[in-house]
User: Fold this.
Amino acid sequence: MGEQPLPNAMPVLSFNPDIVEMILSGRTRSVGESLSAWLTRRGISAHFHSFTGDSDAFDLNAVSIKLTDIIKEHQGNEIIVNLTGGTKIMSLAAAAICSRHNLKSYYIDTQNQRLWQVQPAPDSQTLKVPLTVEDIFLLHGQSTWEPGKLPSQEICDLAWYIAKNYASLNSILKNLSMQRMDLSKLKSRKDGFLGLCVKAGVLTQTLSGAIDWGINRRFFTGNEWLECLVYQACKTSNVFDDIQWRVKVEGGDTTDIDVTAAANGTLYSFSCKAGWFKNEHVDQFYAQSERVGGKFSKKILVTVKGDRRHPQTGVSISKSALLSRAAQFDLKVFFPTDFSNLQDKIKRLVRTR
Assistant:
């Protein structure tokens, strides 16, 4: 077993085994424990086999003996060997033993989403693994699962309307975010914006026409409208197996990721910034996403603007600097010009992975 859990978990969904035997070294023990807990939740028996010392994982004879002993325990049953992960010596020893005993063996190409049959005859097929966001979190050592309550359709409809009309609503959104706008002025708008706000519970309007803030006033004062837009765009893109909202992340500074989605075993993390931000936000988001999705996870930043200055500190990050920083971490960035067809942008991002 290697240090990335997904190549070890994916064959489970493809082959649905009764028992999984794992060969671990000292540095992959925690990965094995997370995988074992996940397997147990799915009703699959998991067994550990550890080397006496880490050097044995690089010893061809030691690995061969360990594998041979495991195979003897399951004589008479169908045995499938996953060659992915671990040291190169472990993979070579496993391939040699599979050849000797005429056992089926496979290699998982996570990057290209291919399942390769190595023995008895080379073959490949598209890897289809409908892992949920919870599956991926648990496989990466997150012991608790705390997603937020999904936004209502009315809230999402309002966010979608803002995205389609962002240019004309930009100044109003800024005033609403700071709660310094005379709400009565919204009555003069003829585009339905006020009605959508009332329907979503962001604003209230009495029979006499008086307007006030509703129970969802954070919709404009925080990042919520942008988070709802991303959630709705993910939903309408129809490319994800699962989509979750504000899932808490353990480790480091406990926080949550705004929107997380899973497609064929890959985690897509979205961070939404309707206000100011700086380089540290990019760094923190990258670390959080790696912690819960591994090195193959995809990170996407959605922001209203790159050139933004904090009103108290004066700290800002320009659009060009943001794109440069994002490129260092392989982050995708979406700006307001992408909002009106964000679902198509996301669909293209997933399908061209």
